[in-house]
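Problem 3 from the worked examples.
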Amino acid sequence: MPGNFFERMKIYKVLPDLSKRRHMAIWHKALRAQWSAEDLSWSAPMRLTSDRTLSGLARVLTPILMGEQAALYSVSGLIPILGQNSEVESQFYLTTWAVDEARHTELFTRFYQRIGREPLPIRRFPSGYMFQSSIVSHEPAEWLAGVLVSECLAKLAMEEFKRLDLDPVLSEISRGILEDEARHLAFNHIYLEDRFSQFFRKDLKEGESFGERLRTRLRAVLDNVPAIFDTLDADLKAIGIDRHWLSARLAEDAMNRLNRSVDAGAKMAGGSLSADQNAREERGVLAGAF
């Protein structure tokens, strides 16, 4: 049994290299940025009093809560897979990503308690379940391409809730989650850029094929979004969110981020990314610009 365990883990060295500088930098950034639901002012008076508005908000938040829970399960499952491939630096970072998703799940659970409502059950919201199911993958790059849609959706939604300022606690939640999502998107870029550079170094066609494969996967996940907005259309409109604007921004943002990772990987593999360009991009990634 011990032999089988170590064979599965593919451990060739007791001491990890930890040589991927950007992976280690974002891991330490995530460690320093941790926060808790207990840090929020849950006793702040509620601004929303209409039963109709509160029920609509509960429905709108449903895919967000589902996304946090689905990401928690997915990230937790990928941590040992990265270990099996000796991707220790990425494995380190995913432990903080799992903590982030657990924190977000707690935050929204407590917010539902605050407003005295429950999210839509799966039987009334199958489109949300189908969307999250389409993201799941045991291959890290495939998962990251799919989860780009969920992460971008969460980012856009939190920006809207912050802008609308419907409730002081929800605004606090939005500000904190936006900081977490910036790190998730930065890691997404770092990891995929590295993977693409590996493919492009081997063979140009192999890199291009892998890029198109992930674009196809991202489009397949995006195809599940309209059904979610169909269910929530009236509620989104009632609280001041334009579903058509949100859908267009989501598709554009997610695909642009994936293309940026593909292009950066190709440049890195070809040696056309200068030291100054690489340094500027690295500062942007680690600052959460992605």
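Problem 4, a separate protein:
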Amino acid sequence: MAIEKLALSHSDFHTRGGVQYIGITDFSDIIDASSSDYASSLFTNTAGNHAVSLQQASTGDDVVFHLFEAKQGTASFTQTGSKDGSTIMYEQTLTFFAPNVKDDSLSAIEKLGNEQLCVVFLTYANEAANPDVTKAFVMGVSEKYKDSSDHCNAKHYARLSSVEVSTGAALGDDNGVTVTLTCTSGELVRSTIASEIAIDSSAGTLTIAKA
């Protein structure tokens, strides 16, 4: 019996879902105050490139994010756009689950409070699609509708919007904290491609090296 060739390429398969790594820092930490042209060179808008550079100039510092590593199936990102006249705005939502209700995680989440956040996240599909390229997506950094005194529109930074703490009731129920971060953006979510994104699980950091 002949076995027919299955003419399927990688693009024919459903892309692996879920968010794997999440990095959170204060919005002010991504701005290199010593570089006058940093804000103007932050964004790249060319064909096939909808990116934002979070690499500070050589006079700046590495950008260090607090790292959360999510179990597959417990973190996701969604973005919904709505148009009013000629203006379209997007609501971005990142939700993740921190297992086990315990003091250190509750304390860390509470510190987010009303902070102005910049968030980067890597999906599981990222490493499957191209393991040689580290690409993260960025929340809380928007180019549109900024003015001369507004670094990449700080009005659109990410915020902690909800926290749900649950121990569960049955033995098989989830015990942990569900965290939701949201922001409003004038554009679709951007990616960032750094020369090196270093993830240190033991130290709990995600670092983007300065340019």
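Solution to problem 4. The chain has a mean pLDDT of 82. Helices lie at 103-112, 124-129.
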